[in-house]
Design a protein that fits this description.
The protein is mainly α. The chain has a single domain, classed as MFS general substrate transporter like domains (Growth Hormone, Chain: A). The protein is built from 18 helices and no strands. It starts with 5 loop residues before the first helix and ends with a helix.
């Protein structure tokens, strides 16, 4: 069967993934909080389990993608994500939710380094940055129908969107197996593939690249600091919003309210990403780092306001601002990392970034969850915002290192 061109496949994959994740996650936290009955600490421990799986498997799966096949890595990861969601939706217990995080967390590690590295190799580094932005936009656009589907399915049962998303991810894996090309990747020679030494050598090359480029260290530390912040917010924003008395608008129930919140978020994120795509020169490292500084600073500020908000309108506005700024910053950070990574170890270095993020979430999440369980959900969220502020110092350091990177490229 004839394979499709790489760019359309990447955009289909980005859009479909966003659509399916939206179907699952629009009401996923509501499902875990209300149907499964998890406490704030259990909600965070679910996330910690997910990130622990990512932390343990991120580097090995990234190395596999660099040595064997990035295409195969993406297909395996997509299938595992689907299996994880099917496990979570089929059994509403704490233990089943934890097992599901392991399955889809490992699947995410197969994709996180390989997907971005695959498209960069297929179409080239210069065209990869715009592709990242366009893929993010398509994903944001498709969140709207995803939200509508989730709300409709959620009226049948809060676990139904999770089950539907799992099945759709398995279908996406089949599509990728049939149509995803791989022409730009040069795998290791067959005689070297059976050797753990080959994978170890690829990992050493990736670590070595980071060691000789201080900017890459700073970029990875940004991912670490962001992880320390994000776990607390991601797991606690739903119970915080549920704690407020919501106004009676069109008779919306809980699924309807969260669908409306998600729809407005998607529209705002779509517009913000388009502005960033048009105005930001992704090939300019200084412009990218400056933009990330402003974006992360805004995320910290609005997360703090979200936690301290005493009423639903202010909490909702701060939530939207936080989510939109985070959505814009994601593809910009990916483009920034891509600028300073060699093709031969790109998936491994991308996986290192994801692993440092996971380590940050493991380190920061349980402490924030414990504070929330002790009875101070607002304080826990405010603390999460403050935990992000060190990222501004790290980005400033990265910007000062940019001239050194140019010299290192000439030397290498």
């Amino acid at each position: 069967m004839k394979r499709l061109n790489a760019t359309p496949v990447y955009l289909i994959f980005s859009g479909a993934s966003a659509l399916f994740f939206t179907i699952v996650f629009t009401l996923n936290m509501v499902y875990q909080a209300e149907m499964v009955g998890l406490s704030p600490l259990q909600l965070v421990l679910v996330g910690t389990t997910l990130e622990l799986a990512c932390f343990l498997f991120e580097i090995p799966t990234g190395v596999v993608a660099d040595v064997y096949s990035r295409r195969l890595s993406v297909i395996i990861g997509t299938a595992l994500i689907g299996i994880g969601f099917l496990i979570e939706g089929s059994t509403p217990t704490f233990e089943a939710v934890l097992l599901a995080q392991v399955a889809w967390g490992i699947g995410a590690t197969f994709i996180s380094g390989a997907g971005d590295a695959w498209i960069a190799d297929e179409i080239g580094e210069e065209r990869a940055g715009p592709a990242f932005m366009r893929g993010a936009q398509i994903g944001q656009l498709l969140t709207l129908p995803g939200i509508a589907i989730a709300v409709l399915l959620g009226k049948v049962g809060l676990n139904v969107p999770v089950l539907a998303g799992g099945g759709l991810f398995l279908g996406l894996a089949i599509f990728l197996a049939l149509y995803m090309p791989e022409t730009g990747f040069k795998p290791a020679p067959r005689e070297d593939r059976t050797s753990w030494g080959r994978m170890s050598a690829t990992l050493r090359d990736g670590v070595g690249l980071v060691r000789v480029r201080p900017l890459l260290v700073a970029i990875l530390l940004v991912s670490l600091a962001y992880g320390v912040y994000s776990e607390g917010f991601d797991r606690l924003y739903t119970p915080h919003l549920l704690s407020f008395d919501r106004p009676d608008v069109l008779g919306l129930d809980t699924p309807g309210w969260f669908g409306l919140i998600g729809a407005v978020e998607a529209l705002l994120a779509l517009g913000a990403t388009e502005i960033a795509r048009r105005r930001l020169r992704l090939e300019d490292g200084r412009a990218v780092s400056r933009a990330l500084g402003w974006l992360y600073g805004g995320v910290a500020l609005f997360t703090l306001l979200f936690g301290l908000a005493g009423g639903f309108p202010l909490a909702l506005a701060a939530y939207w601002a936080t989510r939109v700024l985070r959505g814009v910053s994601g593809p910009i950070y990916t483009a920034w990392l891509n600028q300073h990574t060699e093709s031969s170890v790109r998936a491994t270095v991308f996986s290192m970034a994801a692993q440092t993020n996971a380590f940050g979430q493991i380190a920061g999440g349980p402490a924030v969850g414990a504070i929330a369980t002790a009875g101070s959900l607002r304080l826990a969220l405010a603390l999460a915002g403050l935990l992000l502020t060190p990222v501004l110092v790290l980005i400033g350091r990265a910007r000062r290192l940019l001239p050194d990177v140019a010299l290192q490229r000439q030397e290498i």
